[in-house]
Structure prediction request, 429 residues.
Amino acid sequence: MSKKLMLIDGNSLLFRAFYGTFRGDSTSIMRAKNGAATNAIYALANMLNKVVQDSKPDYALVAFDTGSKTFRHDKYPDYKAGRKETPVDLIAQFPLAEELLECLGFNTYKSDGYEADDIIGSLAKKGQEEGYEVNIYSGDRDLLQLIDKNIVVNLTKKGLSDIKKMDEKELYDELGIAPRQIIDLKGLMGDSSDNIPGIKGVGEKTALKLLKEYDNLDNILSAKIDGKLGEKIKESRDIALESKDLATIYTKMSFPFKMEDIKFRYYECEKLREFYKKYDLNSLLKKLPPQEIVLDFDYEEVEVIPSEVFNTNSAIIMEMMEDNYHIGNIIGIGISNGKMTYFISLENFIKDKAFIKYLGNEKYEKYCYDAKRTIVALNKYGITINNLAFDLPLATYLMEPSLKEDPANIYNYYGKNIEFLSNIYIRKE
Prediction:
């Protein structure tokens, strides 16, 4: 299995995260108690948690622009001119984003004279040459030119929630061209977002038609095309070539690090916990697993449950071999009345007639972790439980539907730490 390299366009994703939650009024922006805007880093954290869980990268890097002029400005001083000013609340979140990324286990990089696209392009090609499976995440369609064998571009749409995977087939199905033709497309139609001029009067529809007929910009410029379109192309020959050059991602950068240096670390739980607390990102904080077992009660393992427990309501929990309770076997059962807590093994439980009778007694309420799981598991042994009055996961879902349904997350929601056994984000080597 090839190793996975994840490359993220930090500027693109942070801009989309900000504007995806911005309603044009700075007073509506999500803020921490200290006044710091947090809408962009909140959306970014949610998106990165999702893509990491889905793809599980081995190596990862988030590339940023430096904000200074690049080699493209030297060629064309008006490159990216006319862009509206970046909101102060977004600018302030860039350093927060870098702090967040470090806590999440990502490496970041930026280089004077180059754009994030060039960093991503250079690392993508390097990764491809070394046999990595490369996944790029960005909202910038310029990066579609990098699509190749083992290189996929995941385009973010509608903020960060909708991601479209673009490979050679998807690109051809959408535009009818190959990745190498993206820069020819830009040479013809330009790109207003980067102030790349292109040929005046040639839009995407015309440009795609020309590319399908003539294959590339050089062929188009040398072809004898009649009418006004032919005249426009002839008059704008130099502009078209310059536009193509500006739109071409540089893929030969050298780096002060090796691929092993950008190994994905996965998150540092305590650092991330402190970051979320610092900026009052409470819903993200609640999704973090605890990292140690803290049992703040005493219990006794017994062969027979003492009868005094059966004179009141109680909490019941089962320990099972498998997560799937339809096929899993019970290891044992815990019972507590708030004063006394006992655990009994399956072998002793099925012989404890007084305990089994109590479970079926409708007079006393039983509070459990997952009523359906409890009923199904006990039914396998011909045992009935009545008056199940409370189901902890169900109650938690009603209060916090977005919380991941895992015992560690649910108990942590109430401030009780247990070992987190099934978190796919903390991967064991």
Notes: The chain has three domains: 4-176+255-262, 181-246, 289-413.
